Structure formats: structure tokens, C-alpha cells
Amino acid sequence: MAWQQGPFRFMTFKEWVPDKIRFWIYILFLIAFQFSNGMYFTAMSQMQGSFSITMNDVKMMSHAVLIGLTMYFPVAFRMKSRFPNRTNLIIAASGLALCNLVVPYIDTPFVLVIIGFIAGFFRLYGTFECFSNIIPKITPTYNYGIFLSFVFFVVLGVIHVFDAISIQLIYLYDWQHLHRLAIALLLMVIMLAKILMSDFRTMPKKPLYAMDWLGMILWSVFILSLIFVAQYAYQLEWLHSPYIRIALGVASISLAINFIRMKRLRHPFIELAAFKVRRLPELLLAFLFLGILLASKNVLQNTFTNAVLHFDALNTGKLKWLEFTGAALGAAFSFYAIIKLQWKHRRVALIGFAAVVTYVGMMYFLITPDTNIEKLYLPLMICNFGHLCIFISLTAFIQATAPFRNYFQILCILGFIRTGLASPIGDCIYQHGINGLMGKHLTAIGSNVNLSLLTSTNRLSQIGSEAMCSTLTELYGYTFIFGIAVLIIMGVSFKLYLDKSVI
Question: What span, in angstroms and rounded, lies between the C-alpha atoms of 389 and 61?
Fold first, then answer.
């Protein structure tokens, strides 16, 4: 803290707690909050079978978690200045533990979406409390290039380790054990916070009045309605469904009310000035393109490993370690490029996009039933390397250029795309592509097959595998072309602004 003399100390702990372990206690808290997700991506198929719901329902719940995370940003410092660090950690851990407790016993998708949103809110609540207190230890000069490299390594990198652990746990037991383990970790956080920490305030106390909670609800309704449309549109036959029309109407009305309140309220949840920040449209487009490219990994690659290669849970978990390695390399490279080499943020982002496009190009040549798991190692490492580079560089750019008053509001706006709409839009595109192209390739392959052989189950399976491989290869090809177009646009833009912008 600014008023401390000598080496930095974490003043939020009681005096008898050794200084050497205080930082690591926060890291332990971070581990607990990162593992505790409310809804677990690795348990999607198990939840689908247990609750007799569709995969779209489970994905909608997962997107709700991510939107809950996003919606905490604009109120983060208000909560931090209202309550001591210990109280905030206990509230966040208690709320997240309660969500984990009730999820296994509820089978109504709408209720689970709400619980997922709440769980995401509490998860970032606790995560922000930890990160905001350890930043002086990580970078005493408050260099956000260093800090964001660490943050995104934990948030986007270490999460793959937890995914690998959760896959192993599901394989040995069942998906409900993930929630039991999360509850145990969160109870540990509550106990340690009560025993080891004091009510020391890191910020002056401020009341919670004038916080626009209604605005947060309206923005949440707006973005969740759009995600619903993107996630269910193909299943419900687009505008032929009254649910899709209602969702679009709700999104339009909530957006209109938000802009009206934005102009009339003194302290709206998101101020109009946040939408006027320089380069914001470019950043939104960049994260949208990234989401579509990364959806190829979530949809096309998962379809390939499940439907063609027939990987079991243990092999899927093995791939998570390669994703973690790629993320670690991406964080290290971003740190070195931005801090040591003083490269512009746009250059690091361009390298990140090139890495993701390289992954797509490599996968184009790997879609064959003869591919073994080792051939997927390098593409996955390259993909996650690029993912981290893009997130770190573009978020660091926002921190360097946006007014602090609107910084967290801008993170929320970017979250509408990068953790909200981009992924379901990409899912919708690729699922539509698979469903459309699969029939074409089945017809083409089937027309060249002797009909007398179709009685063989193995031959039928082989035909289906060949058609799926042809479909995935074609979609990866289209994605590669799209990625090259994105790189050209970014390259031209980089050349135009090279001497005019810090990005």
C-alpha cells in the first residue's frame, strides 16, 4: 500500500500470521475459486443424461456462468470499498458454495441458468478480491502488462489443469463429486478467512447507495436473450419459433430501456462514455472473430475426437495438459514481448491470431481416422498460445488507453462478446455446417458403395466416419480461409495505425 514503509506486507491478515505464507494463502484461495464454477464444462454430457435435457440447455447454463462473471466488473470496486477483504471473501465463498450445493438437485433448465449466472457473479467476486490484493506483490510498480499476464495465465491457463482433474474425478466417481469437492474447497476458504484474516480495509469505506442494480439486471437480460437466440435458433427453426421471437423482443426492449436510463441516471451500470472509447468497435470485432475461430476447437475438434477417433475421458483429459502448456507459453511470451521488448499491443495480438489460424490450418490436414493423439499436441499448444496472447494484449491495451472510471465497464462490454455471444454464434455456425454438409457427403460416399455391402455394420460405421471426416475437413477449410481474411484485415489495420497508436 502507498502508506506502508519498507517491504510490502499483506495487512489484511492478523499479526501472528507469518508474512512468508500470506501471499500463498491468497493463491490457495484463488485455486478454490477457479475450481468452483457452479456449472462445469467437463460435466456437460453427464448433466445432460442425468437431467434429461438437451446439450443446448447445458451450454446455455455454461454461458450464464460466464455472463455472471462479466456482470461483476462494473461493481467490483464498489463492493471492495464497502466491505473488508475478509468479509468479501466469505460472502463470495458462501454464495458460490450454496450454488454448488443446489445444482445437483434441480433439473429445470431456466432455474439452472439463473443459478449459473449467480455462481459466475460470486466466482469473479472472490477471484477479484484475491487478485486485487496480490497485485502489489506481483508488480510493485503496478505494471498491468505483468499483472494481466499472470491473471490470464490463472484464469485461462490453469483452468485446463482443473478440467483435467475434473475429468479424472468424473471418470472415477460421478459429476456430482465436482460440486462436493468445490463445496469443501470453499468451506476451507471461509474457515481460513475467519481464522487468519482481520477486518483491515484496503480502501476507504463507501456505502452501496447509487449502485444501479436494476441496470445490471437489464443488461443481463439483454445479453442472455441474445445468447438464447444464438444457442437455440437452429434447434427451434429460427423465427418460426415463438420463443426466438419473444427472446428478440425482450432483448430489443431491454436494450432500449438501458440506453434511456443511461442518459437519465447520474450513475448508470454502464455509462454512455464507455461506448465512446477509442477502438472499442475494433476490439469487439476482434473478440467476435476470435470466438468464431475458437469455436472450431470446441465444436469441430470435439466432434472429431468423439465421433471419429472415439477418445475416452482419460484421453480427453490428457489433451488438457497440452492446452495448459500452450497457455503458459502464451502468457510468458506476452509478458516478454510487451514488458521486455516493448512491442505494441496490436503486434502481439496479430501474432496471437496467426497462432490460432495456424491451429486451424494444421487441423485441416489431421482430419482422418488414422490420426493418433500425439498429432494433436502441437496444434492445441499453438491454439492456446494464441488465445492467451490475444486476451493479454487487447486487455492491456484497454487498461493503457481507457479512463479508469470506465475501465471495468468496458471490460463488461467486451465480455458481452468474448465470453457471451462469440462462442454460441460460432457453435451455431459450425453445428449448422455439420448438419448441412453431412448429408451431402453421405450421399456422395453412399452413391459409390455397393448396396449389398450396406448390411455390414462395420461398413455402415466406416461410411459415417468417412462422411464426418469430409464434413469436418471442409469446415476447417472454410474456417482457415476466414482466418486468413481476418489476418489480412488486421495486418492492413496494423500498418495504417503503426505510427499513430499505442496499440
Answer: 27
**pLDDT grade for 5, boundaries at 50, 70 and 90:** very low
Cα 264 vs. chain centroid, distance in angstroms?
Answer: 33
- Residue 286 burial (C-beta neighbours within 10 Å; 0-12, 13-18, 19+): buried
Mean pLDDT of the residues in the chain: 84
SS3 content of the chain, % helix, strand, coil (to 5): 80, 0, 20
Longest dimension (CA), the chain: 86
pLDDT classification of 1: cutoffs 50, 70, 90: very low
Cell numbers linked to 501: 497508436
Rounded-to-integer distance, Cα 498 and Cα 492, Å: 10
**Given 3.40.50.10490, 3.40.50.410, 3.30.70.20, 1.20.1250.20, which CATH number is that of 10-206?**
1.20.1250.20
Angle at 157 between CA 101 and CA 428, to 5 degrees: 75
* Cα 15 to Cα 12: distance, rounded to the nearest angstrom: 9
Q: Tell me: pLDDT of 226 over 80.
A: yes
Residue type for 466, please? E
Q: What are phi and psi of 154, to 5 degrees?
A: -70, -50
DSSP 325-373: HHHHHHHHHHHIIIIIS---HHHHHHHHHHHHHHHHHHHHTT-STT--G
Structure-block grid coordinates of residue 207 = 456505502
Distance CA 492, CA 494 (A): 5
DSSP state, 18?
A: -
User: Domain 270-503 adopts which CATH fold?
Assistant: Growth Hormone; Chain: A; (1.20.1250)
CB 421 within 8 Å of CB 226 = yes
The answer to whether 227 and 421 have CB atoms below 8 angstroms apart is yes
pLDDT tens by residue, 346-372: 889 999 999 999 999 999 998 888 888
Amino acid at 345: H
419 contacts: CB under 8 Å, gap ≥ 6: 66, 67, 69, 70
Query: Which three-class secondary structure state does DSSP give residue 194?
Result: helix
* Region 269-273 average pLDDT: 87
User: Within 10 Å of residue 367's Cβ, how many Cβ atoms?
Assistant: 22
What pLDDT does residue 449 have? 55
Which helix (DSSP H) or strand (DSSP E) does residue 284 occupy? helix 280-295
pLDDT digits (tens, 9 = 90+) for 315-351: 888 888 888 899 899 999 998 898 888 888 888 999 9
> Contact 349/389 with Cβ under 8 angstroms?
yes
CA distance 368 to 337: 37
Q: What is the mean pLDDT of residues 103-132?
A: 89
DSSP state, 236? T
